[in-house]
Amino acid sequence: MKSPIPSFLKKALLATALLSAGHAYAADTAGIVVYNAQHESLTKSWVEGFTQETGIPVTLRNGDDTEMGNQIVQEGADSPADVFLTENSPAMVLVDNAGLFAPVDKTTLEQVDSAYRPAHGKWLGIAARSTVFVYNPSKLSEAQLPKSIMDLAAPNWKGRWGASPGGADFQAIVAAMIEQKGEAATLEWLKAMKTNFSAYRGNSSVLKAVNAGQIDSGVIYHYYSFVDQAKTGENSKNTALHYFKHKDPGAFVSISGGGVLASSKHKEQAQAFLKWITGKDGQAILKDGKSFEYAVGKNAESNPKLVPLQQLDAPSVDASKLDSRKAVELMTQAGLL
Ligand SMILES: [Fe+2]
Fold first, then answer.
1. Ligand 1 centroid distance, CA of 39 (Å)
2. 174 & 190 share domain
3. 177 and which of 63, 84, 137, 249 could share a cystine (Cβ 3.0–4.6 Å)?
4. How far apart are the CA of 12 and the centre of ligand 1, in A?
């Protein structure tokens, strides 16, 4: 009786099986998958530098904080992710609360200033960004500037400021406000915000609207303005930045996080990646590149165009407690989402 599988096909099948086994082996030893919610251009620079130095290939899967955080939680132990990088802390907290992070290597933790990493060491800061009040000086004089972000709830601010409530950036600011002021006060502020503010999609749109005189002011992160200034300045030339300082909730500095997944099968390489981006070369990319985010490494310098991080007088907020679900819940209750 003739075999149902012709011999040439048998050979082909065998070759395919060997090839895929080879692939599995290669993936096991030679590369990591990074779920990246940081700005793609910044992470790409990190990956290029890391791969060049270590020879370890990195596959990037890009998305936003909430989307990728939820995806990792859903995937659980089956997640293909070796490393998770975010724009803000709440998505790190989401994954951490699900118990999915492996402890970060001690030598890596020690590279980062203790103010920019949670004490438990399950993840750490890789960069930082400051909340800022952007305004159009032809609409608002310095004397009219708010002393606190909380002032923006007052009736005289009605119709005069904008924000991007749907984004993880603004939601991190809200999560920090909950930590500082409590749920009740934050909810009250959010309800007043709903009455007073104009909604935009993304911080860049807020900046653009302020620049164009469509709205007097807005709450964004600092780098949107610096990035635009470094290009043509066309979306920021009519704007100025006001830092709230004085440990105000509006002076919140948000920590971008990095962590290694407990389910990673390439932990050594994943840990090496975190070590590299928080080390001298990785942090220098923040100083010399075009991201304009703050460096968080010990003795690492940020771009000299920025107001130094130490001068921002940011509130001390425990990044490991920032609760995105609670922030979203209160924002939904206030009709913002
Ligand atoms: Fe951003």
1. 7
2. yes
3. 249
4. 49
Domain membership flag for residue 296: yes
Q: Can you give the three-state secondary structure of 137-162, one letter per residue?
A: CCCCCHHHCCCCHHHHHCHHHCCCEE
Q: How far apart (Å, rounded) are the C-alpha atoms in residues 271 and 279?
A: 12
Number of domains forming the structure of the chain:
2
Tokens found for residue 218: 């807005």
Q: Are residues 37 and 168 in the same domain?
A: no
pLDDT at 29: 54
| Same-domain status, 188 and 328 | yes
Q: Does residue 23 form part of some domain?
A: no
Q: Which residue ranges in the chain fall short of pLDDT 50? A: 1-28
Structural element, H or E, at residue 220: strand 217-221
Read off the amino acid at residue 309: L
215 and 292 both lie in a single domain? no
Count Cβ neighbours within 10 Å for each residue of 177-204 and write b for 16 or more, e otherwise. Answer: bbbbeeeeebbbbbbbbeebbeebeebb
Measured CA to CA, the distance from residue 101 to residue 104 in angstroms comes to 8
Q: Are residues 209 and 260 in the same domain?
A: no
- Residue 293 · residue 128 · CB < 8 Å: yes
174 Cα: distance to centroid of ligand 1 (angstroms): 15
pLDDT (tens digit per residue) in 267-292:
999 999 999 999 999 999 999 999 99
Examine the domain organization and report whether 102 and 88 are in the same domain.
yes
Pairwise CA distance, residues 96 & 286, whole Å: 25
Cα separation, 210 vs 228, whole angstroms:
13
The residue range of the domain holding 279 is 31-127+254-307
Cα 204 to middle of ligand 1, angstroms: 9
Domain CATH for 167: 3.40.190.10
Residue 244: Cβ within 10 Å count: 26
pLDDT for res 122? 98
Asked if 56 and 82 touch (Cβ cutoff 8 Å), the reply is no
pLDDT in tens, 193-229: 999 999 999 999 999 999 999 999 999 999 999 999 9
